[in-house]
Amino acid sequence: MEHEGLLVAEREIEVNNYDIDAMGIVSNIVYIRWFEDLRTIFINEYMTFSEMMKEHISPILMKTEIEYKVPITIHDKPVGRCWFVKAGRMKWVFKFEITSGDKVHCIGQQTGGFLDLERQRITKMP
């Protein structure tokens, strides 16, 4: 699969028994959590959440899009990847992919920004 942007996070993902639904596949909401984990890996390289709190800012999501392709089971060994695609003055965009072997399980995109916690308004990126 061809990607735009800079690969900023890649990690093996452990599928836990609590990630599986009654059908024996990973629940849809778990993929969103994995996106969050991947994005957090990138953010922590540049500014920890503790540092952000001292600056009175926090990253926020404005939009999450996800396309489910092939279900993941407890037996799969998925790998998550995150690309930093775009950054404007007030918004950023990340793209995601969860795969195992040659199977693409899902792709997605998140758009977000930073919130000034004191003013409760979107603020420029740090």
Automatic annotation (TrEMBL):
This is Acyl-CoA thioesterase. It holds the Pfam family 4HBT_2. It comes from the Bacteria. Transmembrane segments: none annotated. One of its GO terms (molecular function) is fatty acyl-CoA hydrolase activity.
